[in-house]
Amino acid sequence: MKPIRLLSAWVVLGMVLTGCNISLGKSGEVEKSEIIVDQDEAKQLDVELHLGAGKLLVDSGTDKWVEGSIMYSSTKNKPQISYQLNNGTGQVEIKDSKNVDLNIGDKVNEWEVNLTKEVPIKLNVNTGASDTSLNLSGLNLSDLSIHTGVGEMDVDLSGNWKESFDVELNTGVGDTHVVLPKDVGVIIESSKGIGESNFVDLISKGDGVYVNEAYDTSDVIISIQTEMGVGEATFEIE
């Protein structure tokens, strides 16, 4: 399978078919394509992930800036990738085609994306109808924004973070589970929808504000702004 390699220029690519075909009956053939964003002179990354419908897995650890694979069964779901180096910031965008079919039924649209640990990352995740798993422990995050529509979501922010950063979390319909660090300060300001929110091993300060035990003494703080929709959201310490 030939990977997609993105150089330091503004490049918008339809995914390259790799010849890895799997029969899925009604949904037809599944194409698997690899994505590689090679390292360049970037000092930080701005990563945008826009998935209309399907499954998204984000993990840490690659010797590239970004590395991953996408499986899709509809040409309408063939994602687009762009990369630009702008004043020291590598700008990565992976998004569904404008013609994406949100009513995917038994179609396949599965993304696996691995991010580098070597430079600070501003990560923006937008999903429509999807199951999302964000294993972000070990990354060098400078900012995190998550907006979800319908589906389940797991976010792992555990670990020993070296720098403070802000998190914006907006959920629609579905259950959300967030794992938080023990030894790094955490503050959550929650704007609750009609769903249920659970704050496990966190201290209530009133008015929807929660902190962990390390908050008062830690030099590193993760500040989380949440707006919860319908469903159950659970925040717990690792």
From TrEMBL:
PROSITE patterns, per this entry? PROKAR_LIPOPROTEIN (PS51257)
Which is a Pfam family this sequence falls into? LiaF-like_C
Domain of life, per UniProt, equals: Bacteria
Domain called Cell wall-active antibiotics response LiaF-like C-terminal: residue spans: 140-232
Q: Which residues form the DUF2154 domain?
A: 40-129
Q: What is this protein called?
A: DUF2154 domain-containing protein
Which species?
Pontibacillus yanchengensis Y32
